[in-house]
């Protein structure tokens, strides 16, 4: 009788080992799945943080461009198709009256923020640089200013400012755009 009991016990020990191995494999699969999920969530979080960082830099550059519009002098403001000095001719621009002393050259058919200067976006090549103070590894934000129109009845000039900023990774780019209305003695703001 003892021999039969011993054989039975040996079979049970082998079966328990098999069950333990199967449970360990299932636990290992759960650990691998949880690790992959964690890594994916971490990448998503890092990308979202970088996107928000780039967006805040673009907004800061937009505000700098708006301040520059407010400070524009009344003489010899030149807008060109190549966005020289960050001053761009808008699509469908109409020459303003001579008393504004604004000159417009070229008649582009592509929006200024999509316009290419060679093989680079004009905003990247000729846009005005907004210094972020070393926050972004020499990837300063840039902005361009476009003269949109002049309303002779109200004396209001309308400008569009477009800003582009990069995040900490090369693939993260954010844009911001706003409209500025200004009159000789009054400056108003409207964001679009």
From TrEMBL:
The keyword Transmembrane applies. It comes from Neisseria animalis. Residues 13-63 form the Type 4 fimbrial biogenesis protein PilX N-terminal domain. Keywords: Membrane, Transmembrane, Transmembrane helix. It holds the Pfam family PilX_N. InterPro entries: PilX/PilW_C, PilX_N_dom. The chain crosses the membrane at residues 15-35. It comes from the Bacteria. The keyword Membrane applies. Residues 87-181 form the PilX/PilW C-terminal domain. This is Pilus assembly protein PilX.
């Amino acid at each position: 009788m003892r021999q039969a009991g011993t054989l039975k016990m040996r079979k049970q020990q082998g079966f328990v080992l098999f069950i333990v191995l199967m449970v360990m494999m299932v636990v290992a699969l759960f650990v691998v799945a949880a690790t992959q999920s964690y890594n994916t969530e971490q990448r998503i979080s890092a990308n979202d943080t970088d996107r928000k960082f780039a967006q805040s830099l673009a907004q800061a550059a937009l505000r700098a461009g708006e301040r520059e519009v407010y400070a524009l002098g009344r003489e010899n403001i030149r807008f060109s198709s190549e966005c020289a000095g960050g001053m761009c001719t808008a699509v469908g621009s109409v020459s303003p009256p001579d008393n504004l002393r604004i000159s417009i050259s070229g008649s582009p058919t592509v929006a200024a923020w999509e316009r290419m200067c060679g093989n680079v976006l004009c905003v990247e090549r000729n846009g005005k640089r907004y210094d972020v103070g070393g926050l972004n590894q020499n990837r300063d934000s840039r902005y361009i200013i476009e003269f949109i129109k002049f309303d002779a009845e109200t004396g209001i000039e309308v400008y569009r400012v477009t800003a582009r900023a990069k995040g900490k990774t090369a693939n993260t780019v954010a844009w911001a755009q706003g409209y500025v209305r200004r009159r000789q003695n009054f400056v108003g703001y409207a964001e679009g």
